[in-house]
Amino acid sequence: MTDTTQTPQQADPAAQSTDLTINDLNALKVIIDIASSRGAFKPNEMVAVGQTYTKLTTFLDAVAKQQPQGQQPADATAPATGA
Looking at the domain assignment, is residue 53 inside a domain? Predict the structure, then answer.
């Protein structure tokens, strides 16, 4: 008997972008908010999640302060760099 199931083709690794954008980081912040509100984290994981969330928020706030008043980042899809 032969196996006639096909495995999905994987995308070309070179075609996938590995850059994180400001929009990606904002999405991660929202994901953490949603996951924590749904009780997805165990109590012993809360410190690490909270510290990461605080670092993420601080970074995003710093990026927002660098932008002119009332504007989105000029290139929200530009890769994020550490401060």
Answer: yes
- Residue 26's Cβ-side half-sphere holds a number of Cα atoms within 13 Å equal to 12
Residue 50 lies in a domain: yes
CB-CB contact of 21 with 78 (8 Å): yes
Report pTM: 0.62
Residue 32 has φ and ψ, to the nearest 5°, of -65, -45
Residue 2: inside a domain, yes or no? no
44 part of a folded domain: yes
In residues, how long is the chain? 83
For the segment 32-60, what is each residue's pLDDT rounded down to a tens digit?
999 999 999 999 999 999 999 999 999 99
- Structural domain containing residue 60: 40-69
